[in-house]
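User: Teach me something about this protein's shape.
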Amino acid sequence: MQPLFLYNTLTRKKEEFKPIKPPLVGLYVCGPTVYSDVHLGNCRTFISFDMIYRYLVHIGYKVRYVRNITDAGHLEGDRDEGDDKFAKKAKLEQVEPMEIVQKYTVGFHDVMQAFNNLPPSIEPTATGHICEQIEMIKEIIAKGFAYVVDGTVYFDVEKYNKDFSYGQLTNRKLEELLEGTRELSGQDEKRGRLDFALWINAKPETLMRWPSPWGWGFPGWHIECSAMSSKYLGDVFDIHGGGMDLQATHHTNEIAQSQACNHKAPVNYWMHTNMLTVNGARMSKSAGNGFLPGELFTGDHPLLEKGYSPMGVRFFMMQTHYHSTLDFSNEALQASEKGFERLMESHNTLQTLKAGTTSSEDIKALQQKCYDAMNDDFNTPILIAHLFEAARIVNSANDNKLTVTQNDIDTLKNIYQHFVFDVMGLKKEEENSKTTAVLDKVIHMVLDIRNKAKVEKNFPLSDEIRNKLTDAGVQIKDTKEGSSWKI
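Assistant: First, the predicted structure itself:
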């Protein structure tokens, strides 16, 4: 097996990957909080780690991939304030909290399936592991790193920092972190400004609550991942992943909890995906530039010129390294779609390619370059460049501009199968996706005619086009940026 190097957030450098118990690899990724639709930032993280999971399996590792579902204990902010978001949503919609959980868990799985993500080996839920979280909290209290105030259990950060480094993941000292934190108010129960809740005392009206040694309550957000990762992967495991936004608080607190409990660093390699931007600006709901996967697929958003296929979006995400910022724009997405189509067309051509007796290209060297790219911290942009080189060779051979042997053809087929389909997780678009693409072009052509009629003040024709499209089941939406449609 060739050496694999990955960037470790904890040490801030690339390191050769050496599993604890090869060929078994323990991989834990922080999963979604299922009180709302999964957003694209989450999708990028899960697509990136799906690719990493696929590659580890491809090169011979047996991977136990654990991705949790957060279905309790997620408050309004990181200061352990406000209501549980699941219960809050349930009250607004007048349903049981677990109905909210079920609805958005199903939606999350649908999105993952659309992106062709493989399911994890284990998908534990926070509510299914309350006992494990309570036991871990008891152990942390026994070790002297937590205290109880009126039924709520707090982690003592400053006491922990005397024995361990609390800010090791972000390379920040405790003094720096304290400077950026507001002073405690006279009514605050916590001893220290950075202390966080392991268990939260339930209010009388709290819907999601469980009995504990400290009274009825619910777990803090951070303790769930520490409890579930240690249960399924052990006190120390290989890789822990998630979005970069989880580094400073969630993952920092995970390390503290686990180390306080077991006196061991819980993870050997920390890996984080970077954030998303839209036309250079950070993606967010408040800025109006955040869109959901469903909106991306249909094009039903003011910033989108059209809908984009799940595989086109997945391929687009692979064109930027997982550790770099990814910028969404219509131009970039459309260029990615063309690139994806080019790869698929060259794969079709490869199936009918005729072999010659001589070889014009070193296909074995190209295959090795693909492995070299992936072994360098899963560098999918470089991998894609090599795959386009494979496409060039296929097309040139088909045009009789160069010759390839049967062994070359077999190696090219392996390159496509292993890297395009198995590792990158791409698949050929369904026929109905092609039909949708054609339909999109036809309807936009009709909308152009309608817009021209409006400009020429031919309103009867404009209204007639709109009415006939509506009768056909096509909904038109007019905005300042133009017109969009959906079925």
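Now, about its shape. The chain has three domains: 5-273, 277-423, 433-486. The radius of gyration is 26 Å. If you'd like, I can walk through any region in more detail.
User: That's plenty for now, thanks!
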